[in-house]
């Protein structure tokens, strides 16, 4: 079996125990194994990070930019190998994996450019002959915890800005999908990142959680994952001066108004709902449709969903991949069973896909549910799978109320030809990301990203906004005589 070592202190490291990595398209045979590190190895990772930070924070921003630019080039050169591994361990289509790989390189290039600019502001000073400015400085050692659904782009989104600013990191990839993140680490290592600046901890979370979260050298934790885990981490930090950046759950809605271009809206909703088998935090999982066009839009939507090709991610014909693990498949199927029990109607899909070789994978048929009411769990709780719930409303105001009647607030979209309704929706939707006549997914590297309410914390990701999390502000006043 292929063995993939992890990165600690600039060295590629093995261990006495290993974790098998499975292909969700066929879970019978592991595709690789990675080290199952122990708590003492985690402490060693923080030792390395502490030393790496002392060096990296004093490294020229131009040298940091060079490392990032070279790493981006290496990722682009290795795109076929990396994308194949993303597909193999996560299940997403090769086209999706290729896009994710290239976007990881985009993150490195963007923050290489930002590192060159410097971070600060020149301020007026009331005192004569004084010049005052602010400067942003790195905060220290940051723990990065990434999920299985975007195993390469999420580490890139988190690591690129914090490393570009001069911080060091201990990075814990998801146990199900560690190989993608190790590709990112290898590109940085091969580009000349100093030892200890980035350390990758592969292991079973239950065995190393205490060592990961309780190390006193942590000054910040950035986490993407479920609300349950995110809230547990937040509670653990209550009496510590540790920053927490959380990108948590979502229950994203798309609104289709009566004046919308219905075929275009149906295509966009299908892309947002069923790309990556719905396993994206910004995936559309609720559709609010004005009643006069509900029947026609539903017909167009169901036809588009039934045209999806279910299959393994490495098959070019596949447009709907398997779910990322047996556990995730079973969770989605349980959500579907509960929805039907509560009164939802299955318009298409509604169960597992076990045809032929798919019997050995984690497949769920793309599903559209009708007659869904706001009180049902399928309308209120995150499913994270290829499941879309429809609800009819009377008018714009009722549609906005339906969008905002949620504990979450990550992304929302409206489809309309009316510019007034478009801007009203942008103002009134209680979400961090709002789209008009386009998908709830697809936010580029320079666009601030993050949700409201239970979808996240005040620290945004991406763009320059992320510097609020990964840097601290120092104010400097200089008296120059007289």
Structural summary, described in words:
The protein is 38% helix and 21% strand. The protein is α/β, with parallel strands linked by helices and 482 residues long. 52% of the residues are buried. The mean pLDDT is 96.
State the gist of this model.
This protein has 482 residues and is α/β, with parallel strands linked by helices.
Question: How are the secondary structure elements laid out?
Answer:
Layout (H helix, E strand, L loop, with lengths): L5 E3 L2 E3 L4 E4 L10 E4 L3 H18 L4 H17 L1 H12 L3 H24 L2 E4 L6 E9 L2 E5 L7 H12 L3 E5 L5 H13 L7 E3 L4 H9 L4 E7 L2 H10 L6 E5 L4 E5 L5 H13 L9 E7 L3 H13 L19 H16 L3 E4 L18 E4 L6 H4 L6 E7 L2 H9 L3 E2 L1 E5 L3 H10 L4 E4 L15 E2 L13 H4 E9 L3
Parallel strand pairs: 7-8, 7-10, 8-9, 10-11, 12-13, 12-18, 13-16, 15-16, 18-19
Antiparallel strand pairs: 1-2, 3-4, 5-6, 6-21, 14-15, 17-20
Q: Over the alpha carbons, how many angstroms does the gyration radius reach?
A: 23 Å
Cα separation of the termini: 74 Å
> Can you list the strand order of the major beta sheet?
14-15-16-13-12-18-19
Spans of at least 5 consecutive residues whose pLDDT stays below 50 are none
Outline type: globular
- Percentage of β-strand residues: 15-25%
Q: Tell me the structural class.
A: alpha/beta
Please give the count of helices: 15
Seen as an oligomer or otherwise, the chain set is single chain
**Number of beta-strand segments:** 21
What is the average per-residue confidence, as pLDDT, rounded to a whole number?
Answer: 96
The largest sheet, given as strand count, sense and whether it forms a barrel, is: 7 strands, mixed
Helix content: 25-40%
